[in-house]
């Protein structure tokens, strides 16, 4: 395994060599068209980036030469330095020196810059007013240089997406071949299919690995953002970043960008108090915001915590009752976790007035939908006066998902593991009929339970979600799923195993059925429906509300 430092170094070299080639191209254009503003601006940009990148990774010599060249081109742009033949020669030599320094990082040789060349660069930069600059002649060392190509290539994400889809197809066929080889009992076929299994697994992980990026590429944009929002809100905020080295699929990070921005904005605008308010409460003047990432088995957890005023549970309950999301009696019995789940209802807001950022709840449904779309989970915890923490549980890959397989009415289903809390077997007598639903007591937590067959297949007029008599057998297999701070137990007929599945979208017109997130093919060749847990939970809640109103 390569160290993270080695990876950074390789990426820097590949990018620096690209910059070097581009600089040579642009300076040649400039020699023919000295007044080309666009080319000048591009050279300046490349040198500025080279200076910043090399300084960040600790290559100070490259940073120093880039800085001198950047200054020279800045003077040329501002018409303070003429682009004369002598100046052109020195700048070409300076760019050649950059190429030499970059190439020598890789070969572990120390390149000693020509002191006469560095002096010429200093003369150009410092003697602005002197029209007759005396430049020393430099022995050109670059004419016999060998051409070299970088070991790294940049790949468009859509090419990797296509490759991932092909790997997905291959995995489905691989499982099918494995199943056939077991049924036939042919030893040679078994050997070949087990080898195929290993190769496809390696291929899958290699493609997934190629798509990974450091979460820091997103996190490192936030110090500036937080500073700007805090300044606009007249607040003082200290942002701590943790876990920038954690890696995640680039597509997932792309989808999460707006959601994270929204949560950070909300935290500064509504979560953290002004310095004066904080002092009154005995808190430090400076509000603390922590953005952290960590790996959790197959998932990545991104957490945003503030030490602000926390959520006003009474206000959320009152708003939920006013919006007819819950009755006043039922609202009183709700746990804090259940109360917080209202924040994710579409358009839910406790704000007195609608401003640009509005209430703490505005837009949280949008954030939740973005996370749902990639098969992730959004959770929130809050303590009044102490602060709020949002946790996003995200898969490391979109295409391949860990799932639990089961059967209802001889139809195979899969539920993504990211939404699966636990699997339990309960005796029918341990289920209690309360109102129009069944309730199970799991370690002191009352969880609503529903027979999946009843939910998916029964007419509304005949539906009796709380009727135990409709259950088959005495022992019930229950899959406890979690969504939007709520848990729901799904009774299934038979439980199978956990396995990685490749989810394929449903074809038209079936793609309009919300309950299913797609399909996958099992090794036996059977089609397996992938349940969309968010949609199933919403569907159940809507059925209950319809029954209550009836």
From TrEMBL:
The chain positions of domain Histidine kinase read 195-398
According to the UniProt entry, the coiled-coil residues are: none
Report whether Transferase shows up as a keyword of the record: yes
One of the protein's GO biological processes: chemotaxis
Record CDD domains: HATPase_CheA-like (cd16916)
The source organism is Pontibacter diazotrophicus
The EC number of this protein is: 2.7.13.3
Tell me one GO molecular function of this protein.
Answer: ATP binding
Q: What is this protein called?
A: Chemotaxis protein CheA
Tell me the ranges covered by the HPt domain, including all copies: 1-105
* Modified positions (Phosphohistidine) in chain numbering: 48
Function according to Swiss-Prot or TrEMBL: Involved in the transmission of sensory signals from the chemoreceptors to the flagellar motors. CheA is autophosphorylated; it can transfer its phosphate group to either CheB or CheY.
| Highest taxon of the lineage | Bacteria
What InterPro entries does the entry give? Bact_Chemotaxis_CheA, CheA-like_dim, CheA-like_homodim_sf, CheW-like_dom_sf, CheW-lke_dom, HATPase_C_sf, HATPase_dom, His_kinase_dom
Please name the SUPFAM superfamilies in this protein's record.
ATPase domain of HSP90 chaperone/DNA topoisomerase II/histidine kinase, CheW-like, Histidine-containing phosphotransfer domain, HPT domain, Homodimeric domain of signal transducing histidine kinase
> Which Gene Ontology CC terms are recorded?
cytoplasm
Residue ranges occupied by any CheW-like domain in the UniProt entry: 400-542
* Record's keyword terms, sorted: ATP-binding, Chemotaxis, Kinase, Nucleotide-binding, Phosphoprotein, Transferase, Two-component regulatory system
Q: Name one Pfam family in it.
A: Hpt
Give the catalytic activity.
ATP + protein L-histidine = ADP + protein N-phospho-L-histidine
């Amino acid at each position: 395994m390569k160290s993270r430092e080695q990876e950074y170094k390789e990426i820097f070299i590949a990018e620096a060599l690209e910059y070097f080639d581009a600089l040579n191209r642009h300076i040649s254009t400039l020699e023919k068209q000295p007044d080309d503003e666009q080319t000048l601006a591009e050279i300046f940009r490349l040198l500025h980036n080279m200076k910043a990148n090399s300084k960040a990774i600790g290559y100070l010599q490259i940073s120093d030469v880039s800085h001198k060249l950047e200054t020279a081109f800045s003077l040329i742009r501002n018409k303070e330095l003429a682009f004369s033949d002598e100046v052109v020669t020195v700048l070409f030599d300076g760019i050649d020196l950059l190429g030499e320094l970059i190439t020598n990082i890789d070969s572990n040789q120390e390149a000693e810059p020509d002191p006469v060349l560095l002096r010429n660069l200093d003369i150009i930069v410092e003697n602005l007013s002197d029209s007759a600059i005396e430049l020393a002649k430099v022995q050109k060392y670059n004419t016999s240089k060998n051409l070299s190509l970088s070991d790294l290539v940049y790949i468009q994400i859509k090419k990797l997406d296509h490759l991932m889809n092909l790997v997905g197809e291959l995995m489905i066929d691989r499982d099918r071949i494995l199943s056939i080889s077991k049924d036939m009992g042919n030893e040679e076929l078994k050997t070949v299919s087990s080898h195929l299994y290993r190769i496809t697994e390696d291929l899958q992980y290699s493609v997934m690995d190629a798509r990974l990026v450091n979460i820091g590429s997103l996190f490192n944009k936030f110090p500036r953002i937080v500073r700007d929002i805090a300044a606009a809100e007249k607040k003082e905020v200290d942002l701590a970043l943790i876990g920038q080295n954690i890696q995640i699929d680039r597509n997932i990070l792309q989808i999460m960008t707006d959601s994270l921005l929204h949560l950070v904005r909300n935290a500064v605008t509504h979560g953290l108090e002004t310095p004066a308010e904080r002092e009154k409460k005995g808190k430090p003047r400076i509000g603390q915001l922590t953005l952290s990432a960590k790996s959790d088995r197959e998932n990545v957890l991104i957490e945003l915590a503030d030490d602000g005023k926390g959520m006003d549970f009474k206000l959320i309950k009152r708003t939920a009752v006013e919006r007819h999301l819950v009755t006043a009696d039922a609202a009183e019995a709700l746990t804090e976790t259940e109360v917080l789940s209202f924040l994710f209802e579409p358009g839910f807001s406790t704000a007195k007035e609608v401003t640009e950022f509005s209430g703490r709840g505005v837009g949280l449904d949008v954030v939740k939908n973005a996370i749902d779309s990639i098969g992730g989970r959004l959770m929130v915890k809050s303590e009044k006066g102490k602060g709020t923490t949002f946790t996003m549980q995200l898969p490391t890959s979109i295409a391949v998902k860990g799932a639990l397989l089961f059967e209802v009415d001889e139809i195979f289903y899969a539920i993504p593991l990211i939404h699966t809390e636990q699997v339990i077997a309960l005796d029918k007598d341990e289920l209690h009929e309360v109102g129009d639903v069944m309730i199970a007591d799991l370690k002191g937590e009352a969880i609503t339970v529903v027979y999946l067959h009843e939910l998916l297949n029964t007419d509304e007029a005949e539906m009796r979600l709380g009727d135990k008599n409709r259950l088959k057998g005495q022992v019930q297999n229950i899959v406890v799923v979690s969504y939007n701070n709520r848990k729901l137990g799904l009774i299934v007929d038979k439980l199978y195993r956990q396995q990685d599945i490749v989810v394929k979208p449903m074809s038209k017109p079936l793609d309009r059925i919300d309950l299913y997130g797609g399909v996958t093919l099992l090794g036996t060749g059977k089609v397996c429906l992938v349940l969309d847990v968010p949609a199933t939970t919403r569907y159940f809640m809507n059925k209950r509300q319809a029954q209550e109103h009836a």
